[in-house]
Fold each of these.
Amino acid sequence: MYQIYPRSFQDSNGDGIGDLRGIVDRLDYLAWLGVDAFWLSPIYPSPLADFGYDVSDYTEIHPQLGTLDDFDTLVEEAHQKGLRVLLDLIPCHTSIEHRWFGRHPDWYIWSPIDGPPNNWVSVFGGSAWSRDDVSGRWYLHTFYPEQPDLDWRNPELVEAMQNVVRFWLDRGVDGFRVDAVNVLVKDAELRDDPPAAKPFPFPLHEDAARLDHVYSANRPEVTGALRSLRDAAGDALLVGEVYLPTAEYQRYLEVLDLVFAFELLFSAWGSASLAAAIGPAAALKRAAWVLSNHDFDRIASRVGEASVRAAAELLFTLPGAAFMYQGDEIGLPNGPGADPPRDRAGRDPMRHPMQWDASPTGGFTTGEPWLPLIDPQRWNVKAQCANPTSLLHFYRHLIQSRRNLGPGFRLRDPEPGRLAYERDGSLVTIETSGD
Ligand code: GLC
Ligand code: CA
């Protein structure tokens, strides 16, 4: 599966912002690369406080990205080329500008007192509670204050979100990447999170790292909420973003088809660390392997340029679904971002536009790109297409070859500098930097 960050994939009208028509124009590229499906990061109307993860209308298209007609064209042409389409579903929160916030305040989570009712903190730091200027009441926001959390204990909200799922399925989508699933349901009594007893294994804002998020997140009741999504989704693919270690995935996999294997995404590039991340996730059988996305370092920046081929080989020879992020196939590193930053949480460096050719705007746009290009002469699709020994061709080769791999998988004991596993008789060895 190929993750598209729509604003940065292909601009079709010269406004410097990638759009749906641009994606249509690049479907042949995705078909050539050989992926089965693509996941679109949010395409809905949004005031862009969190670049689309703050949705102000779940059943429309952001005007900068196109129209519902464009979307229908995209789905139709993708399907004609054998590509399936996954959308990003953001059920945890809306934009504060969503009409629901004013019209259906009881679909959101409010403090029962005049002030924050507990010590919960936002993923981006600071209290997770803010005062609504209109009502004077305090609402919960697990992410930015512009993203009030929805109350999954309210059956009307559940039904509204089920209707969102049905709306897109009726338009032909094949599944959803479900955002922030581990924080979908919170403690009904809003109890304080206790202090963290041990460090959380993934990157976390220092405010969040002080607490053990047992009440603000990862509640057992989440399974019920996910079941209602499943009821609406039928057998469409649901892949969950569960920002937790593998040991916590079971309750999510009761309903979801796949869960991203974050331990792999954050593993050090050493054989023992990788083996420790891969073993338990592989045992679940339904890990979605992933090494990068729009939130965290690009592969080339994380493992180093010398290891990008080894990382690709790992990603595409592990057993089960693999997700790749646009641009990694040409070795794009993190970029410089923008000044002033677009994303307040510092994620611009991973969101620079796709570089299609060596021209100054990389074939991405004829206008002024919303984020600058990195270095289109050094990294671009056109040049790598023309060169059979390029990283891009290596990706294509791996994507083709993985179709011949059976389900068998056995990890060997890691040796320093070398991770090895058997796939139905063939041995895969991945060079790592130390252990
Ligand atoms: C997910 C998205 C991230 C977003 C957050 C809040 O983690 O990947 O980009 O900021 O959810 O919706
Ligand atoms: Ca555009």
Amino acid sequence: MKITVSLIKADVGSVAGHVRVHPELINVAKQSLEEAKKKGIIIDYYVFNAGDDLELLMTHTKGVDNPTIHELAWNTFLKAKEKAEELHLYAAGQDILSTAFSGNVRGMGPGVAEMEFEERKAEPIVVFAADKTEPGAFNLPIFRIFADPFCNPGLIIDPRQHDGYRFVVVDVIEGKQIELSTPEEMYDLLALIGHTSRYIIKYVYSKHEDIGIAAVVSTERLSLIAGRYVGKDDPVAIIRAQHGLPAMGEILEAFATGHLVKGALRGSHHAPLLPVPLKYSQCTRFDGPPRIVGLGFCLANGKLIGPIDLFDDPAFDWTRMKVMQIMDYIRAHGPFEPHMLSEQEMEYTTLPKVLERLKDRWKPYKSTPGK
Ligand code: 13P
Ligand code: 13P
Ligand code: MG
Ligand code: MG
């Protein structure tokens, strides 16, 4: 049976700053998706939050980019936005960049990760949702899961993973994509995806036709859509696990580093990524540290069996401690690079205004001291 898993998210307002989605918004979204489930539009759903981002996980048989599913997500976000306005929540409607729906939420503010596949007898999946960071934050862990045997030994010892994977990388600046095959083209892949704000891993495919798609990441970049800073493009991803694909442990291992990502305060800083359980899915210190939650499910004819709150585990305590040490260290740099992003990467900055005010005070540079 062909099943589509759609994870669509938007920040439609949050409590006490960009901290956390209000439970009433979660309820509004649940009601909306429950109605759609009763009508048979979707098979199943799970609503959760990643910090201030409302996450709609849905299963159905309509394929990716389906107008009915996208409209359902869009209308659900509008209902939640109304509730956010009623409660005077902060930044109500933040990611609702357009008012007229035209068949697809892509380019309208929400982030989307969707995949369609033939459901296996046992179909373990994990959905990841991050707050206060950008889609490129997934480049490093996705690379390590699907191409680095020091993270995923299955690449060596599992006969099917041994053949490697196909990666689709999007250039979000020029709006084009390329497919690269690992391990053969690993260095070319790395040459691109190390630049996490431009080249973003969108899909990973097994080289075995019967398995098909392995991973998908949302690649929407709000600032590129809106032409101005409108909040970080807090990303989501879906990864299938086991039986010719990475074991769940081979996937989760990639998040034990606490790698540095772009995000945190005002979307303008580098900070380490903190893996957290849902109860800690709220950004506090320095509007961060950027956080990620991971929920594990099995599918049963599209029904979501789970979730397992995968980072709710002492196995990640050390990563969390390490992340807080790195946070202290990098915070000590204050408004200096490389804690603060480079001038070109800053999502919003007063620099143009400062330069305007100082423009008449610049003098030609002289190599000799004195006036
Ligand atoms: P089991 O033998 O427990 O099924 O585990 C196999 C596996 O892939 C562990 O990583
Ligand atoms: P969000 O993108 O999560 O809304 O955060 C915006 C921000 O500027 C936090 O400091
Ligand atoms: Mg916000
Ligand atoms: Mg957010």
